[in-house]
Amino acid sequence: MTSSIPTRDGPRDHAVLDSAHAGDIVGAFGRIRRDGTGAYGAAGRWARLRTLLVITGPGLIVMVGDNDAGGVATYAQAGQNYGMGLLWTLAALIPVLYVNQEMVLRLGAVARVGHARLIFERFGKFWGAFSVGDLLILNALTIVTEFIGVSMALGFLGCPKAVAIPAAAVLLFAVVAGGSFRRWEGLMFLLISVNVLIIPMVVMVHPALKETAGGLVPRFPGGLNSTVLLLVVAIVGTTVAPWQLFFQQSNVVDKRITARWIGYARADLVIGIVVVMVGATALMVVTAFGFAGTTGVGAFTDAGAVASGLARHLGSGVGVLFAIILLDASLIGANAIGLATTYAIGDSLGRRHSLHWKISQAPLFYGGYAVLLAVSAAVAFSPDHILGLITQGVQALAGVLLPSATVFLVLLCNDRAVLGPWVNTVRQNIIAWTVVWCLVLLSLALTATTFFPGLSTTTIEAGLAVGAAIGIVGGAATIVAGRRNRDRRDAEAIVGTLGGGLDPEEVDELDDTPSLTSGERRAVRRQDRSRWQTPNLATLPRPHLSPARRAGLLTLRGYLVMAVAFVIVKIVQAGMA
To answer: Rounded distance, CA 323 to CA 327, Å?
Structure first.
């Protein structure tokens, strides 16, 4: 199913919004022709490795961008204040990372449009404005924290803030504004390579393997209270941030990765997850063992103070390495988050939004990026106590807002008109909705402990247990309904594969036959997927929102507004303390 409609950029290929999103895959390590022919399309292990190198990018960059200035500060705070006691939170987030980001990469490769565009087209302007509005505010504040990280890192190295922040803003714009996707990706890979410096830094703090491994046992150091819950939510927010959904889907589209290459894109994502988890663990290790036995334990203030403290206790070499890692993380994060924002703006307004265009060809895309950098850089000159509140609050706010973003993501991945046979399987939905429910429970716990600071650990744990039980019962009912629907879809797929010819009564009879074997189901799905193309979204009727689903979305939105308010209250209280 294809259609072409005229746009300001010329004919549009089925769902593709920007004409620059159609063509050869161009990466830092080479090119793959649109039809898949050429050196990288050949069979063999070496050819597959070369293909992976070309396609690698969106998954790796979004994951490394996850360890931005806020991430460095959050992981450092966890290590300095609680040792390795919260390492288990990182391990628990690995499946969350993969499930969320695999869904957006699948949406991008199959639907060929960005995340914001899909929300606007499938749910309307009301929900689209909410989603993109959340993103714009949160991303702008997050980029402020990136400039704070730049200022702290370069300040430790002897460069004043008045020079560091403007220089970083100019550099960030120069990296993006070359009019070459391949050049931009190459520069991002160069920045990513700086992370190897974390290896000698870990060696220099002499970590204990047994104590590090002990951090994988789930526990809440000092008890389950609002302070530790806020940090856990911040770890969730910095590790699985809403901007990542928008960035990776748009970057997959901008790199022109189609459904044919999803296997390689998934491998790229796995590589990125390994890199981000190793980096986050290393940062916890450095501060946990670097401050062990000193007065710095439990006294985290900010990332700049961490660099100074490490230099004071372990020598200037460790402090310098930490400052370089912080600077590098800030630049990568600001670049990716800024692009996530301008990608979303281009998606929402239907204007050119691709790194393949030059500035004169896509002025809104690059102009919006420049304005975002300028405003965030200006805010980064605010008084230190204001910046401290922003730094503490951004990651927690990201964690609180994540359930809303994930709900829309799961609904889109079950939209058969858009993804056809690429929609979520029952297993994927189980995992995805489990993630959403766990995030909601976590934010509920944070809200409760903020509003009622006297709640005991036993009470909080009991509330979480009740919430988990509700989730299990609701999930079981959903699984039963999902399996019946899946069996019917399999029967309909067989009819389609056989070329039709069965009337509705005969299709109903197929529902009474035994379910297909897993091998038969995979074969049918493979065949359907190879033929599927998402039609132009403007030609599709919007999915029906039942009263129950609409009420659920409105309830979630209302709750999140309240939860954000409570997080802000908690941050202000912490700042005053």
So the answer is: 6
The confidence score (pLDDT) of residue 15 equals 60
End-to-end CA distance of the chain: 61
Instruction: Indicate the SS3 state at residue 6.
Output: strand
* Partners of 30 in beta bridges: 27
How far apart are alpha carbons 358 and 180 in whole angstroms? 8
State the Cα–Cα distance between residues 311 and 182, nearest whole angstrom: 38
Cα distances from 399 to residues 176, 268, 443, 463, in angstroms, run 28, 24, 8, 19
Which amino acid would we find at residue 16?
Answer: V
Q: Give the number of other CB atoms < 10 A from CB of residue 364.
A: 14
From 72, 20, 50, 42, select the one nearest 331 (Cα to Cα): 72
5 φ, ψ to 5°?
Answer: -125, 150
**This prediction's pTM:** 0.84
**124 is written with which tokens?**
């309307």
DSSP class per residue in 395-425 = HHHHHHHHHHHHHHHHHHTT-HHHHGGGSPP
Question: Do the beta carbons of residue 247 and residue 63 sit within 8 Å?
Answer: no
Return the amino acid letter for 379: V
Burial code (b: 16+ CB inside 10 Å, e: under 16) for 406-422 equals bbbbbbbbbbeebbbbb
Helical ranges in 260-383 per DSSP H: 262-290, 303-314, 316-349, 363-379
Judged by DSSP in three states, 61 sits in helix
* Cα torsion through 74, 228, 277, 427, rounded to 10: -130
| Helix, strand, or coil (residue 109) | helix
Burial of 499 (0-12, 13-18, 19+ CB in 10 A): exposed
Cβ neighbour number for residue 553 with a 10 Å cutoff: 18
**How far apart are alpha carbons 441 and 434 in whole angstroms?**
11
Please name the residues in contact with 67: beta carbons below 8 A apart, sequence gap of 6 or more. 75, 195, 276, 279, 280, 283, 329, 332, 333
**506: which 2 tokens?**
């005969």
CA atoms of 182 and 356, how far apart (whole Å): 9
Do the beta carbons of residue 73 and residue 303 sit within 8 Å?
Answer: yes
Can you tell me the distance from the alpha carbon of 24 to that of 44, in angstroms, rounded to the nearest whole number? 21
Q: Are 201 and 338 in contact (CB under 8 A)?
A: no
pLDDT of amino acid 43: 60
Contact 446, 397 (CB under 8 A): no
- pLDDT < 50 stretches in the chain: 1-13, 38-39, 41, 490-513
Residue 440, amino acid = V
Q: How far apart are CA 557 and CA 103, in angstroms?
A: 22
Q: Which amino acid is at 274?
A: V
DSSP 16-53: -SSGGGSS-EEETTEEE-TTS-SGGGS-SHHHHHHHHH
- By 3-state DSSP, what share of the chain in percent is helix, strand and coil, each rounded to 5? 75, 0, 25
Q: What is the DSSP letter of 535?
A: P
Residue 126 CA, chain-centre distance (Å), reads 23
